[in-house]
Structures are given as structure tokens and as C-alpha cells.
Design a protein that fits this description.
single chain; disordered C terminus; six-stranded mixed beta sheet
Length: 297
């Protein structure tokens, strides 16, 4: 049985993908990928990262990560052993020493008694003795009364309004020419998302056109005609800033798989599809509307 690193190397070479391209897609440093393929696990950060690297690489190379980890478990470095009893012993809290502060409780009680005495004094003085919580109001207000507004103000200027002569002599307004109807725009209708695949229905067009670019960095792309498993129309790594138009060959649906999805920009029949918030490896399935440009929303 070949070693794990050999399986990964063969799968990468079958896809025609170099180590630099795989590093750009998985965000794993090239030196770690070289160590993984060579089976030199001591050069990797640790057992946890070793298994995480295997999962990321397997996802890009269309390998079953769970099956690889289970088959080569004996080959991979073991997870660190943790003695639960030892950890529990270290985590036990030491018994607190009994406080010798004798004055603490008595001081708190004294403050409480003073507060209650103050409340009782206020209650007796303002409620029982004066008969009301609020002081009695005097008959005369201490605030000066507001000045009275003069009643006899001089009349304001009279504004004369010109009589309405009507529109009898006005020339008729010219008829406005209606602008020509705008051409129907392509609409990408989101249908559903399952796992790492989104399905879109393309409306407002009779044919699928596809433009791919990599404004954010290198991105690996594979385009297949009429769904996953169909004819491969395009497969390679786009370099940063590169743009390419894919010949769709009259396809009614396109299956597109991305590596480093956030770096990609996709335009379908003139409509842009945003993928910045999608996972590193992601699939997009495009289907032409059942009635082409006449499809209803």
C-alpha cells in the first residue's frame, strides 16, 4: 500500500497542479506541502495541523479526507496524551484561609445602623412633624410673572395677488417622445445552497456566456458542461489580474469549481456573481432558464 504522501502527490500530478498552485489554493506553505508528500511529519507544526493539512489538500484534490485519515492513522503522528487525573489534581483549588479580620462584620453592621437612623430622622422630620413630605407652598410666587403680549399690534403689510388670467392664451405643450424600451437584463436567480454548492437559474438570455478573472490573487478553476461529471471546458490556475472568456459550446448548464474562491470574479451573460463570502473551495451550478429570455420572474 503506498504511503499517504505518495497518494497525495499522485492525485496532484494527475490534475496537473504544481506545489505553488496547491499552496495558493489551500493557504498552506509550500515547505509544509513538501514535508507532507515526503512523509516527514516532524517538519510539520504538530499532530493537529498535520490532520488539518491532509483535510485541506484532500478537499482540493477531490479525495476522501475521512478515508485517508482512517487508512493512514498509524502513519500519522499521534495526538498528545492527557492524564485527566493529573490535570484534575493541578486544577484543584487550594482551601481558602479563614479570615482573621474581626472588625469587618462589626463595621458593616455599624454603617447599616447609621443609615437606618438617618432614614428614620428624615421620615419623622418631614412627614410626622410637618404633615407633608413637600414644604408648604406660599401664596405668592417667587418667580416673576411673564410679560403680557400686546393685543393691539400694528397690522402687517398686505400682499396683493395678481388675478389668475387662465391658460387660454398659452401655447399647447409639445408631445413628449417616449424613450425606447431598455433591453432585458440578465438575472441570476438563487435557487438553493447545499453544502459547498450553490445553484443559480440564469434568466433574461437565450445562451450562457462565461467570463472568469482573478482580481484578488491566483485562483484555480474548472468548468464542466451540463453539470458535474460533464465535458471539461476549462481547467487551470488563473494568475492574479488575468481574465479569460470560456467557450461554453452552447451548454444549457455549467458546473464551476473554484479553489481560493475569494480571489475569483465571475460574469455570466453580462451579470456578475459575487463569491467573496464563500469557502475556499466552492462549486457554482448555473442552469439556463426553461424559457430563455422569456422566463418569468
Amino acid at each position: 500500500m503506498p504511503e499517504l504522501g505518495e497518494v497525495i502527490r499522485r492525485a496532484r500530478e494527475e490534475k496537473g497542479m504544481g506545489l505553488d498552485e496547491l499552496a495558493a489554493i489551500t493557504k498552506i506553505q509550500r515547505r509544509y506541502l513538501e514535508a507532507l508528500e515526503a512523509g516527514q511529519y516532524t517538519r510539520l507544526p504538530g499532530p493537529f495541523y498535520t490532520r488539518a493539512f491532509v483535510r485541506s489538500v484532500a478537499e482540493v484534490l477531490d479525495l476522501d479526507a475521512d478515508e485517508l485519515l482512517a487508512r493512514y492513522e498509524s502513519e500519522l503522528p499521534r495526538q498528545p496524551y492527557t492524564d485527566d487525573a493529573y490535570v484534575l489534581k493541578l486544577g484543584e483549588a487550594q482551601p481558602r484561609r479563614k479570615s482573621r479580620d474581626v472588625f469587618g462584620p462589626w463595621l458593616a453592621r455599624g454603617v447599616l445602623l447609621l443609615f437606618l437612623a438617618l432614614v428614620g430622622y428624615i421620615f419623622y422630620h418631614f412627614v410626622l412633624e410637618s404633615g407633608s413630605w413637600w414644604p408648604r407652598s406660599s401664596t405668592s410666587s417667587a418667580w416673576p410673572s411673564a410679560p403680557k403680549v400686546r393685543d393691539n399690534l400694528p397690522p402687517g403689510p398686505i400682499t396683493e395677488t395678481a388675478p389668475d388670467t387662465g391658460n387660454a392664451g398659452a401655447a399647447p405643450a409639445p408631445d413628449k417622445e417616449e424613450p425606447p424600451p431598455a433591453p432585458e437584463k440578465t438575472e441570476l436567480l438563487f435557487v438553493r445552497e447545499e453544502g459547498k454548492t450553490s445553484l443559480y437559474e440564469v434568466r433574461g438570455t437565450d445562451a450562457l456566456t462565461l467570463s472568469l478573472s482573478a482580481p484578488g490573487g491566483d485562483v484555480w478553476v474548472r468548468v464542466q458542461k451540463d453539470g458535474e461529471g460533464g465535458e471539461v471546458l476549462f481547467e487551470r490556475t488563473l494568475r492574479k489580474g488575468e481574465q479569460v472568456d470560456v467557450d461554453t459550446k452552447g451548454a444549457k448548464s455549467l458546473w464551476i469549481r473554484f479553489g481560493a474562491t475569494a480571489n475569483a470574479r465571475i460574469e455570466v451573460s453580462g451579470a456578475e456573481l459575487v463569491l467573496k463570502d464563500k469557502p475556499n473551495v466552492y462549486n457554482v451550478w448555473l442552469q439556463l432558464g426553461s424559457s430563455g429570455s422569456k422566463a418569468s420572474s
